[in-house]
Design goal:
Elements (H helix, E strand, L loop, with lengths): L5 E4 L5 H9 L3 E4 L6 H7 L5 E4 L7 H4 L7 E4 L9 H6 L3 E4 L5 H16 L2 H9 L17 E5 L3 H10 L5 E5 L12 E2 L2 H7 L2 E4 L13 H5 L6 E4 L8 H9 L5 E4 L15 H11 L4 E3 L8 H23 L3
Parallel strand pairs: 1-2, 1-3, 3-4, 4-5, 6-7, 6-9, 7-8, 9-10, 10-11, 11-12
Helix pairs in contact: 1-12, 5-7
């Protein structure tokens, strides 16, 4: 049996996940302070397992200091913050836990869409101000609409499952799906989805293929003036092209949990170009925004953390057991 590993919790994970490592005899240390890159550069040299969430870019500079690194665990779905090729070249095994927040994201997609179509943010504000306006706050029903899902992986599949009860038609595009398609979801081309969908929800990882997917040409293919929902990554749906589509009446609204103006936080809004885009975006009443919280519920924090720990431990024990 190989020696127990030394684990560094660089971002806070749920205590239940940390307990799993300790129960396995692993030595667990928390980075002090959390989120500090200089502290991480100093601590990583003696670490076997690095646990991160969203505070770091785990790039080649960082990895070359991790002389003993065997595992990188990212608590969440996306892995674009980790230089996967550099990790592979160094023999480091990488895990994420998209299963842990798929329900949270799917629920927020539905919540944001219903809030937008029922004018709830506006109505709530007006009623608190003594304005009783039933006419302009008349809503739109989801029932009978066609929902297009781009990316039928963990989250896209959960969204489709939850939408069944709303009596909608479900279309999806995913050329990489290997699992059997759910009977209630129709596999279509991107052109067919753009032609028929009243709602389009993005559930893809950020790759060279998906970066800028919702471009100017893509919006020109939309025929139903749909609501665009993005809870994946901001750079999949660039803000400037989205604003142009709104201004040209190609889409009827947008629900955005993520923005291309994000970095590790909200720093890009401070740039001259970012400030202009932000100003145009927040003036649009048909846009609903949230601060990248779709996958970040109280329940999902536990699930993404525990699932990640289980994956690392299972791989560790698999290697520790002679075949």
């Amino acid at each position: 049996m190989p020696r127990p590993l030394k684990v560094l919790e660089a971002d806070p994970l749920h205590p239940k996940a940390i307990a799993l490592f300790k129960e396995a005899g692993f030595e667990v240390h928390a980075l002090k302070p959390y989120g500090n890159r200089m502290a991480l550069l100093e601590a990583i040299e003696e670490v076997d397992v690095l646990l991160v969430r969203s505070s770091f870019h785990v790039d080649h500079e960082l990895l070359k200091h991790g002389l003993k690194l065997k595992y990188i665990g990212r608590a969440g779905a996306g892995m674009e913050q980790v230089d996967l090729q550099a990790a592979k070249d160094l023999g480091i095994i990488c895990f994420n836990s998209p299963e842990g927040n798929r329900d949270a994201v799917a629920e927020q997609v539905i919540g944001m869409l219903l809030s937008l179509w029922q004018h709830l943010p506006k109505a709530n504000k007006e009623v608190r101000e003594g304005i009783w306006d039933r006419i302009s706050n008349r809503g739109t029903e989801l029932m009978g609409k066609t929902v297009g899902i781009i990316g039928l992986g963990n989250t896209g599949t959960q969204l489709a499952k939850k939408l069944q009860g709303f009596d909608v038609e479900l279309l999806a595009v995913d050329p990489y799906r290997k699992d059997i398609w759910p009977s209630y979801v129709e596999q279509v081309s991107m052109e067919e989805l753009c032609r028929n969908a009243h709602v389009v929800s993005f559930h893809v990882p950020l790759t060279q293929e998906t970066k800028g997917m919702a471009c100017r040409d893509w919006y020109q293919k939309l025929q139903q003036k749909p609501v665009i929902i993005n809870t994946s990554r901001g750079k999949v749906v660039p803000t400037e092209a989205l604003l142009e589509a709104l201004e040209n009446n190609l889409i009827s609204g947008a629900c955005l949990d993520v923005l291309d103006l994000e970095g590790l936080g909200f720093e890009h809004v401070g740039s001259k170009e970012g400030a202009k885009l932000w100003s145009r975006l927040v003036e649009r009443p048909e846009v609903l925004l949230s601060p990248h919280t779709a996958g970040w519920t109280h329940e999902s924090w536990e699930k993404i953390s525990v699932i990640l720990a289980q994956k690392i431990l299972e791989d560790y024990y698999r290697g520790a057991t002679p075949s």
